[in-house]
Amino acid sequence: MEPERQRSGRTLKKGRKRSRIPSKLVGAAEAMRSRWDLEENQQPVAKKARLSTILFTENCEITHGQLCELLKYAVLGKSSFPKPSWCQLFHQNHLNNVVVFILQGLSQLHFYKFYLEFGFLRKAFKHKFCLPPPSSDFLADIIGLQKKQIIGNLPKAMEGALPSASSKVSINLQKDPIIQKYGSKKVGLTSYLLTKEEMETYHFPLQGFPDCENFVPTKCNGSVTDNSPLFGLDCEMCLTSKGRELTRISLVAEGGDCVMDELVKPDNKIVDYLTSFSGITKKILNPVTTKLKDVQRQLKMLLPPDAVLVGHSLDLDLRALKMIHPYVIDTSLLYVREQGRRFKLKFLAKAILGKDIQCPDRLGHDATEDARTTLELARYFLKYGPKKIAELNLEALSSHQESQEPKNKAELVQQLNTSVLECLDSVGQKLLFLTREADASALSSSQNCQTIKCLSNKEIKIKWTEMSTVYAGPFNKNCNLRALKRLFKSFGPVRSMTFVLETHQPHLCIQYEVLEAAQLAIESLDDILVEGSCIKVQRPVTELTLDCDTLVNELEQDSENRGTIYLSGVSETFKEHLLQQSSLFLGLKAVILPKDLKSGKQKRYCFLRFKTFSSAQRALSILTGKDWKLKGRHALTPRHLHAWLRGLPHESRLPGVRVIPPPLEQEALQMLKVDHPKIAAWHWGRKIGKLYHNLCSGTLCLILLPGTKSTHGSLSGLGLMGIKDEEESTTPNTCL
């Protein structure tokens, strides 16, 4: 059902026509890496340093070590340090300065709670990413300073030995995520197998799921016991025109013998061999004739009926194999980490087994070595049990190692251990810190920063939930409920839809999953005749939504959102259709197609990211026009925030405004004037703005909100970055 076209005072906007996209668009963010080298070789009219941050991590979380990696490369370039693994910095030699602002005590939560106060930051910096909660020494982590040994028995633990009893004093085992999941007693193998529900949650291929229709089962349906055989599995992939495809598989039996090690020729055209990860090159793969179906057949013959597969992020390996296996141990989930994050295989190998894998002087990963390592890690866990693993305090070891792990070739080890400050000093550059940390006093450019009391994730989740909720009505008592539901679902994914019958005439309460859908419903249906009634569509009025209209307008102007559009009503074939009509959409950078976390099925909405606002505007006009018949608008939720909100538990509450009692009014006003977090956010936003305007052109600038960590819980941090006077026009503009 479509709403009638009469309004009380206005008419619906009609779709406008617009432009086109590159003919060889690969599509998803991962495919952009295949273009980076090509982009770097293109000669712009005037060379300027610029950034590209099409991230490979879905939740856009960047570690402190990766930040340090970027800073070192920015200072000295690729002749001294490897390129960052998570973003691309073009024309590094045209950078004039590197400036880092650290707002101690602030987190990602603060940024979006006081979004309006951070006016300059959100408009000036289009590159945003999440940061994990800070360690005890955030500064040392991001600039690579050698920290003092503060963890008892740390060197022994890093060599693979269990800590002595003296180091257990400072560890609260009951709060360790491994103990919380498995308990402290040793149990058998079957207790560590992923359940079907866990496999569904972590996107393992499962029988009967819509995205696994052509997957092949291993036929391992025997009865599993604590004595069932373990097999280590690891796969390497390349990037093809259809996405990631298998190029190598290694299977290792319990004794450590490799029973299968095969190179595989993908079915589709390869656009990136991902050699730095896979070790596979065109020369290696050219003579190979083995195909995916050959490997599937061989694997089915090798595995006994009760085989248990062990791997690290094993879901990716099984999806590359296009196979379904019911009994798995995933070491990235077995060694549980805080907040759902995962330890890297390289770290676990060093911390648990005392062995070095994935060495920087080797071309890519060794699949057999990785498969054997996962098997050894599983055996180690089974032998010693959860309590011994928890006593290692892996979280603390990981924080320590991040800033010290060498990432370059052997001859550069000495340089890699050099701190960012020493790198900067060698080329006459400065790193500016705004922090209250005592150990920052030795820095020549240190400043003080006010510390703000930690808040709760729950409040920001409730705010976004209320902003994504709309009330619509009044409706006729004889209205077509099915047609109404279909109408409101056409704007985006609905979390819940209920009838409000307490009013004189019925109203609908619709809670959308994404803010864009709620805003689109308001813009499209408010004051329109639906089912014979002129309805109002509006948000609930609470203390968290009073500034909602202003916030929505500012979110739309966010530098990251200006080139991104939201579309609802997309089908499973939308991406293919988009590529077929690529000549219409110049400037398209990425297609983001969210999937249902449980079923793995593509949802009926998406985000398209363009190089410029004008190309995004043209695309929106075409896609909401008569030929495509989609509904959409400019995006409101930055990608990293969208991922963060989806990861938080759903929160709701009864609407209502919290009124401050009269005796407390003066006290509240006084707090607002003196030390309210909102005032601090506004103060630092303005101060950084003034400093930024005094920086010279070509300065790489990072704003870091480190997050907070306390006994009450942890809050993730947020990073913003950009290069002053960086222009989109530094790449050839192909928009019409």
From TrEMBL:
Domain RRM: 468-542, 563-633
Keyword Hydrolase part of the UniProt annotation: yes
CDD domains, per database record: REX1_like
Feature: compositional bias, Basic residues: 8-20
Region (Disordered): 1-20
GO molecular function: exonuclease activity; RNA binding
Keywords: Exonuclease, Hydrolase, Nuclease, RNA-binding
UniProt GO cellular component terms: nucleus
Protein name: RNA exonuclease 5 isoform X2
Species the sequence originates in: Odocoileus virginianus (White-tailed deer)
